[in-house]
Write a structure and sequence with these properties.
Length: 360
């Protein structure tokens, strides 16, 4: 029941206790753990904070504090001053520090992190009151070098970040962030791309994802499929050979072929301009993936002068797709939120279909 929490819940936890207790967020690779630092920027309590991203994989012990010769009462002594990257020079200003990939700390670097995580201090320097230190790392079971020894583990609170499922990724990230509709449609049609390797007895049951029990090249993660969106958009003009090779090298060959299938489906959808001109007669998508692609386009293309036509068409598509549009367009991340919120037809629809705003 309490096996994991969402990335948003991780951010909430860090915001609540991070000034007193370091939270270590563990999770599968590529699920967005590092993005928690960006999430925290939206919290009012951190409005004026300095946000510090520390990549522990690039750090040696000497990168934390360095010697400086000082004179005290005519006597030369060696002091130690902290690296500027850690933000200790911000007096009276909160620092929100993420120690990324802390489980991969090499040599004595983990020991160098201990006081920072336990007391928010390096040497004689202390972070300002209200500062937050948290950390991220991969799962030890993934076999990519992550290890937190017992003496370090006892100083922190370790939580497991859940891997988002396909629907969560589409609604909370992909559509609001403008991921290409074809990529969104691919994930909607093949949701197993977002499954965890722990859900399967044998690696061959899901060839899309990373599985530490076998050796694979490119795999699908929330991170890699997002990068595939950029590749798909920018390489289509270079020809299929380049596009397919690049996609396969980013998300794997199977996912690449799935993207091509969705690309062909997308070309068969009614063009946006034609849909707006004839919303009551335009062809309605027959598959869930096609409807998902169309909705993701609409969320970013509606304007004050075309949303009425879109609402006429939207009332003809399946209720599930209508709910996806409503939840996506009303997301705080969506730039077209005000367009929908100020439209009478959308308000009437929302009042009549309020139950569709609730996620399953």
């Amino acid at each position: 029941m309490y096996n994991s929490i969402t990335l948003k819940q991780c951010a909430d936890l860090i915001a609540a206790v991070g000034d007193q207790q370091t939270v270590l967020v563990q999770g599968e690779m590529g699920i967005g753990k590092s993005a928690i630092l960006k999430m925290l920027k939206s919290y009012p309590k951190f409005k004026d904070a300095y946000f510090c991203y520390v990549d522990i994989t690039t750090k040696d012990v000497g990168d934390f504090i360095v010697p400086k010769i000082r004179d005290i009462d005519g006597n030369e002594v060696c002091s130690f001053i902290p690296n500027e990257e850690f933000g200790f020079h911000f007096k009276g200003r909160k620092v929100v520090m993420m120690l990324d990939e802390v489980g991969k700390a090499k040599g004595g670097v983990m020991n160098a992190c201990l006081r920072l995580m336990n007391e928010q201090a390096l040497g004689v320097y202390q972070l300002s009151e209200g500062s937050v230190v948290f950390a991220t790392t991969n799962l030890a079971i993934e076999g990519i070098g992550d290890n937190v020894p017992p003496h370090a583990r006892n100083r922190i609170t370790v939580v497991r970040a859940a891997k988002p499922n396909a629907q969560t990724w589409i609604e909370d990230y992909a559509i609001p962030m403008g991921i290409n509709p074809v990529i969104i449609g691919t994930v909607a049609e093949f949701p197993e791309m977002f499954a965890s390797f722990e859900d399967y007895e044998k690696p061959e049951q899901n060839v899309y994802i990373n599985d530490p029990r076998t050796v694979r090249g490119a795999v699908v993660t929330p991170r890699s499929i997002s990068k595939a969106s950029v590749i798909y958009e920018r390489t289509r003009i270079l020809g299929d050979a380049v596009m397919c090779h690049a996609l396969a090298g980013t998300v794997g060959e199977m996912a690449m072929h799935n993207i091509l299938t969705m690309d062909k489906m997308d070309s068969q959808l009614t063009p946006w301009d034609d849909l707006i001109k004839s919303p009551e007669t335009a062809t309605v998508p027959t598959s869930a993936a096609a409807a998902c692609m169309l909705v993701s386009k609409a969320v970013h293309r509606i304007e004050k002068d075309n949303i009425v036509a879109w609402m006429k068409f939207m009332n003809r598509i399946p209720k599930e797709a209508q709910g996806l549009f409503a939840r996506s367009v009303m997301s705080k991340k969506c730039p077209k939120r005000d367009v929908a919120a100020r439209n009478t037809e959308f308000a009437v629809w929302a009042a009549a279909n309020n139950f569709l705003f609730a996620k399953e």
